[in-house]
Design a protein that fits this description.
alpha/beta, Rossmann fold, N-(1-d-carboxylethyl)-l-norvaline Dehydrogenase, domain 2, eight-stranded mixed sheet, globular, binds 1,4-dihydronicotinamide adenine dinucleotide, binds 1,3-dihydroxyacetonephosphate, 6PGD_dom2
């Protein structure tokens, strides 16, 4: 199956907030979209009421979107497969899904996390579990808060694939009246920008929860970007990617918006809630709460200094309080800004 540039069948695997919102983008761009939902009742509700009541209540889904609980049906005839589950579940899911993926279909990750244990990025997990080469693996990442995208508020994003011609065809497949994708060949930079901004979002949320203002959050955002760029460039990313939509753009959206689950998770921690209480209060994923640990380990394995990932991981693991984290940031050994 060869990737077309105008329209075609797209399978979106994962009917949470982002899988459903991105399905709207794809349908608006002219694709025939089938969303796979883990729970049968979610698929039924999308087909019958044109709404995903659990993850995107109040948003009418366009006619170009159908839903199913049957993954084989979703994948049949799809030349683009969009992966939109929580990062830590991807490997186990792909083990089941891979036999049904059409030969040559392009696999697109929307996920913003790094796998615990293996420290693999999502594109690496996809390659290992499906055998797809880099020309069949892409990432879409940028400042794309699901609820705003679902309301068709204008936004831009990055479509990254090692094969630029594939990135260009995918760009056409998801260019809608409200969604403007740019191409990139920097898969590593886009993935690490997306995963790291969640950890910085947690730290900013903690600062907000503690009652601190814009100096504190701007300092965390700026040093967070430096930390992200330090690790990403060590792993081969183009530094300019981190200054772009998948780096700075997404960092700003996440750290500024009350819609961000990661920022909200951090804010609750700053207000004194426990990690267990926060997990119990929402069914939605806050990727940074897991990826703080994998990014910390990834940075350590490459000898990269990652104080924000380290401190956030310590808070999430209960080894530090949020106030101790802030005190420790200020008390660290002093250094030059550009070191
Ligand atoms: N929500 C947003 O604004 C954005 C989210 N993302 C990323 O997209 C990915 C998915 O996030 P959301 O859709 O927002 O999460 P969500 O929490 O809203 O939905 C997750 C979906 O995955 C399903 N799921 C949970 N565990 C599963 C498992 N073990 N196997 C299969 N499916 C499972 C859930 O039923 C749900 O449909 C994350 O990596 C997130 O960082 C990226 C850009 C924007
Ligand atoms: O990735 C996102 C926006 O680009 C969504 O952020 P949260 O997962 O923190 O809600």
């Amino acid at each position: 199956m060869t990737l077309g540039s105008s329209s075609g069948k797209v399978a979106v695997l994962g009917a949470g907030s982002w899988g459903t919102s991105f399905s709207i983008v794809l349908a608006d761009a002219g694709n025939d979209v089938t969303v796979w939902a883990r729970r049968e009742e979610v698929a039924e509700s999308i087909n019958e009421s044109r709404e995903n009541v659990d993850y995107l209540p109040g948003v009418e889904l366009p006619a170009g979107i159908g839903a199913t609980h049957d993954v084989e049906k979703a994948l049949h005839g799809a030349d683009v497969v969009v992966l939109a589950t929580p990062s830590q579940t991807l490997r186990a899911n792909l083990a089941t899904w891979a036999p049904y993926v059409e030969d040559d279909a392009v696999l697109v990750s929307l996920m913003k996390g790094v796998e615990l244990g293996t420290l693999n990025r999502m594109s690496e997990v996809i390659a290992q579990e499906t055998g797809a080469g880099p020309e069949r693996i892409a990432v879409i990442s940028g400042p794309n808060l699901a609820k705003e995208i679902a309301r068709r508020e204008p936004a831009a994003s990055v479509v990254a694939c090692a094969d630029e011609s594939v990135a260009k065809r995918l760009q056409q497949r998801c260019h809608s009246p409200a969604f403007r994708p740019y191409t990139s060949v920097d898969v590593v930079g886009c993935e690490l920008g997306g995963a790291y901004k969640n950890v910085i979002g947690l730290a900013v949320g903690m600062a907000v929860g503690l009652g601190f203002g814009d100096n504190t959050t701007a300092s965390l955002i700026t040093r967070g970007l430096a930390e992200t760029a330090r690790l990403a460039t060590r792993l081969g990313a183009n530094p300019l990617t981190l200054m772009g939509l998948a780096g700075l753009g997404d960092l700003v959206a996440t750290c500024s918006s009350p819609l961000s689950r990661n920022r909200t998770f951090g804010e609750k921690l700053g207000q004194g809630r426990t990690v267990e209480e926060i997990y119990a209060s929402t069914r939605q994923v806050a990727e940074g709460a897991k990826s703080c640990s994998s990014l910390r380990a990834l940075a350590a394995s490459h000898g990269v200094d990652a104080p924000i990932a380290e401190h956030v991981d310590d808070v999430v693991a209960g080894r530090l309080t949020t106030q101790e984290m802030m005190n420790s940031f200020i008390a660290r050994d002093t250094k030059a800004e550009t070191d």
